[in-house]
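Quick question: what would this complex look like in 3D?
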Amino acid sequence: MNEKEKQLLEASIDLFAKEGFWNTPTSRIAKHAGVATGTLFNYFESKDVLIDAVYKRLKQEWMDHIMVGYPQNGALKERVEHIWFRHIDWGVRFPVRYSLMTQLKLSNLVSQEVQQSQEAELAFAYDMIVQGIADGVLIDMPPAYLGQIFYAQLEAAVYYATENNLSDMPLTRHIAQGFEIFWRGVTP
Amino acid sequence: MNEKEKQLLEASIDLFAKEGFWNTPTSRIAKHAGVATGTLFNYFESKDVLIDAVYKRLKQEWMDHIMVGYPQNGALKERVEHIWFRHIDWGVRFPVRYSLMTQLKLSNLVSQEVQQSQEAELAFAYDMIVQGIADGVLIDMPPAYLGQIFYAQLEAAVYYATENNLSDMPLTRHIAQGFEIFWRGVTP
Amino acid sequence: MNEKEKQLLEASIDLFAKEGFWNTPTSRIAKHAGVATGTLFNYFESKDVLIDAVYKRLKQEWMDHIMVGYPQNGALKERVEHIWFRHIDWGVRFPVRYSLMTQLKLSNLVSQEVQQSQEAELAFAYDMIVQGIADGVLIDMPPAYLGQIFYAQLEAAVYYATENNLSDMPLTRHIAQGFEIFWRGVTP
Amino acid sequence: MNEKEKQLLEASIDLFAKEGFWNTPTSRIAKHAGVATGTLFNYFESKDVLIDAVYKRLKQEWMDHIMVGYPQNGALKERVEHIWFRHIDWGVRFPVRYSLMTQLKLSNLVSQEVQQSQEAELAFAYDMIVQGIADGVLIDMPPAYLGQIFYAQLEAAVYYATENNLSDMPLTRHIAQGFEIFWRGVTP
DNA sequence: TATGAATGAGTATTCATTCAT
DNA sequence: GATGAATGAATACTCATTCAT
C-alpha cells in the first residue's frame, strides 16, 4: 500500500474517532495526513469509499490480532477461549480503533458489499459452532444466535474493561470470569 | 402533547430510521409531518433538541412497555424474566423504534443531559442486581458488568429474532432459551 | 394616540437603540411592549411603517424640545443661539433617542415620503438663514450649505459632549465655545 | 491582492452602496463578482469579515488620496488646507465610495478591532492640532473636539457639493469658502 | 380588537468533488 | 501523480406577516 494512502487512512481513523464521521470534512483529513485535498480523491474515489476502506483496515487489523497463536487444532473450548482473550486484548489496547469499528458496524455507512465480504471471513467461526453443537459440546440452538450471544458478551466485556480502566490482574480476572459466564451458559 | 408535536416526532422517527440522522433534513421531516419548515422550530429549538426529544420519547415508550405487569414483589428471577420477555416483545413488535433507540444510544447525538436523566431511571435495575448478589442468588461480580451482560444478551436476542422474523412458538422458545443461557451463566 | 401604540413605539426605540434595526425582530418588540406579535401589525402595517413612525416620533420630540421658549421675535443671533442650546440639551439628555434619530436619518430605512415631510418642518430655519444673509448679518453663501454647516457643528458638539460625559459647567462652556466658533465662521 | 478578491470587494462596494448591507446577500455579491457563492468564503471567512475588508479598503483609498502631495513641512494652515481640499476632492469624485465609508463608520458593523486600527492612522492629525494650539495658531480648546468640528464641516461640504452636483469653478469657490468659514472659527 | 401558532421564502455558510496547472 | 482554488447544491434556522379563533 502506498505511503500516502496509509497516512490518509490513519488520519481518517484519528479524526473520525475524535470528531465523528459527519464532523470530519475530507479537507481536514487531507491536511491532517499532510497532503492536498485533491490527493485524497486520487486514492479514494469518494468519502464513502474512504469509509469502507477504514472499516476494512480496522477489521483486518482485528482479525490479524485475533489469529495470532490461534490453536487451530486445539479443543473447541480452547479455541473459543483464545478468541475471547485476543478480542478483549485488542479492544483494551486500541480503544479508539475498537470503538470506531463498532460504530462503523452499526452505522450503515459501510457499503452492503464490504459489510458482507467481511462477514464471510467469519464463516470459520460459524462452522466451529456447528461442529460444537454436533459434538454435543455446545447446547442445541441456532448457531447464528449462539454467535450473536458470543459477540454480545465480548462487547460487554470490552466495554466494562475500557470504561473502568482495568489493567493487569483485575483485567485477567475479568476476562476469565466473563468467559466462565459465557461458557456456563452455552454448554450443557 | 400538541398534535403537531406528535406528528413531528413520529415523522422524525420514521425518517431517521429509514435514512439516518444526517440524511434527514429538517425540511423533509416537516413536510413528512405535514407542516411548514418553520413550524418544526416552534416545537423544537434546534435539530439537536428534536433528536433529544425523539430519544426521550422512545425510551419512555420502552420503559412503559417493560413496566406493564411488572411483578414488583416477585422473586428476583421472576422479575428479571419479566423484563427479559417484555424487552424482546417490544423489540420484535417495534423493530424500527427499537433499532433507532439503539443507534441513538451509541451515537453521541443525544445530549449528555438527556442521556444521564434517562440512565437515572434504570437505577432500580442496578439495585436489583446488587440485592441479588447480596442474597447469593447471583454470582459475585461487578454489578455494572452483570447489567452490561444482561443488556448485551437481550440485544443479541432481539437482533436474532428480528433478523430471522421469528414469531409465535419459535419466538417463545427463543426467548425462553435465551433467558436460560443468561441465567445459567450468572447464577452459582 | 392609543396606549398600546405608544408602548410599541417605546419598545421599538429601546430595542432598536440597543440591538439595531436588523437584530430586532418584530416579535421581540411586541413582547417587550407587552402585547402579542399580531397586535403590532394592527397598529403598524409593516416593520417599515413602524420604523417611519419611530422616526416621526423622535423628530417630533426633538422639535418640541427645541421650540420651548423659542424667541420668535428675538434677533437672529439670539434665535440661532437658542436652537444651538436646546439641540445640545436634548442630545445630552436623551442620548439613546438622539443617536437613534441620527442613525435613522442616514440609514435610508425611513421612507422618502416621511423623510421629506420632516424636512418641510425645517423650512422656517431656511427662511431665517435667507433673511440673515439679506440683512448682511450672515456671510453671503448658499443658504442650504450654511444650514448644513450649522447642523454638522451641532452634531460634533453633541458627539463630543456625550462621548466625554460633560455636565454642568464644562458643558455650558463647551456649548458656548462651540457656538462662538460657528458664529465667528459664518458672520462677516 | 488576488484578482478574484478584488472583484469581490468591488462587487460588495457596488451592491452595499446601492442596496444596503442587509439587503445584499452574499450570493448576490458573488454572482455580481462573477464567481461561485462558495468562492466568496474562500477569501472572506464570513460576511462580517468581508464588511471589515470593504471598510479597510475604502479607508486606505481615502488615505492614499489625501496624502498625495501632502506638504509635510508646510505651515499648519497649508497642511490643513491640503487635507480639506483632497478630502472633498475624493468625496466628489467617488460619491458612492464616500457615502459607503461614512455609513460604515456609523453603522457598528465594522469590528471594534478594525475600527481602532484605522483610527490609529489618524493620530498624526491629532498631533497636528495639539501642536497648532501650543503654537497659538489655533484657539485653545479640546483637540478632540476641534478634530470633530473639522470633520463635521468637511462632511457638510462634501454633502452639499454632491447633492448640488457642483463642478469646476463653483466647486473651487465652495471649497475655498468652506475652508474659510472653518478657519475663521478656529483661529484667534 | 387581541391573540399567537403557522407559514415559507430567504440567508449565511459548509464541504464533497472537480480540474486546470 | 500532486495540488488547492473553484464550484454550487444542500441545509439549519430566522422572522415578517397572516389569519382563524
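Answer marked as accepted. Residues 25-27, 37-38, 41, 46-47 of chain C lie near DNA strand F (CB under 10 Å from a C1').
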